[in-house]
Give the backbone structure.
Amino acid sequence: MTRNLVCVNCGTIYPLEDRRLRCACGGLLDVQPDLHEASPPAVLAQQISSRASSMNPEDLSGVWRYRELVLDLPPDQLVTFPEGRTNLYQLDPTPFGLSALWAKHEGENPSGSFKDRGMTVAVSWARHQEARALICASTGNTSASLAAYGARAHLPVFVLIPEGRIALGKLAQALAYGAHTLQVDGSFDDAMHIVEQLAADHHLTVVNSVNPFRLEGQKTIILDSWFQLGGRLPDWIIVPGGNLGNTSAFGKALMEMKALHLIDRVPRLAVIQADGAAPFARAATRDFAAFEPICNPETVATAIRIGNPVNYAKAVRAIRFTHGVVTSVSDAEILLAKHDLDRQAVGCEPASAATLAGLRRLLREGTIHAGESVLLVITGTLLKDPDTTMALAMGQAAPAGGKTEELAQCVNMPRHVTADPDTIARAIEEELA
Ligand code: F0G
């Protein structure tokens, strides 16, 4: 399919091979396929499902198996593990009065987060363009994912992370996979700004979600869900919002799937932010008439501690197209939701649990109705942030938003026992009593 880069702000068109990150006007770029060249929907659906039993790397990947809607690259140019094909778990919808509730577990990707879906596309394209080195700013998961794909592509990787503000598992991954790791004495937003400033002068390829190729890969969260649900999508898709890459990618996926007649009804997007880092939710209350960044974002969900999301304009488009909603939840609500998901062994990091906390809020407010169907996008695995999980289990979590009594119910401390069968038997009987 013919593809170009198109500015979402002024409509200027650039060739796909142009190396610019933004339009000359400063606007974000889209990778825009000429959908007139696409096969009819039945043919596309048949092509996609025929790949489910193939052992070719490009078909095993839950990103590249949707390549007609992602990017044309020869199979030998792909940097893939493979990724995607994450499980779609059925959760019990009854307590919520819903008709169905699913959790798409993106923490099951090779580096433990959804970022791998975008990274396989951005890094494949960067290697195709003979990039000198790759760079990103990150709250942790992007850096872990880039480190992984950079290692696989044998390309040098630089990651800028806010010092002391990323979860332990993510930092460990970046270091272990060999990324040059620069801990910045500042916020994620500061690091993001610096990366964009110096990339062009130093011939570095930026693979944050401002890179439109990243978003082409992240569209496949929707495509994969559609495929797993037998060619349909639920009434609502709920996703946490930070830099708003997923929000933008999901909106674009749904626009294209609708245009291609793969779906006839568009699900509504619900984007959930943390109360202390909610610039998008705040702008939504004014129907996006004005955007004000938040200078000192703060939340226990470090992945979404972002005050100035780069994809704002595309995310507004996604909300408008899907008649979506944006809201925020407290850190205490996030941790309680995390506890619920963890106890169902869907284990996730705090940012991902914002989805379930958001669902509760939207049901309470009457935005989501009884009888509707909902899909939660679980963005990262529990193992990313062992410190928060341990604090919750040990009764040491003191998040903003109160709920002390409910949080006390989450405590599950390990017990010390001597290595003696009688003592251990007694402990077991006490626990079962
Ligand atoms: N959930 C997790 C686990 C994340 O790591 C991120 C973003 C988000 C949600 C928010 O997604 O940016 O598409 O709105 N993490 C980025 C990073 C910013 O650097 O790892 P978004």
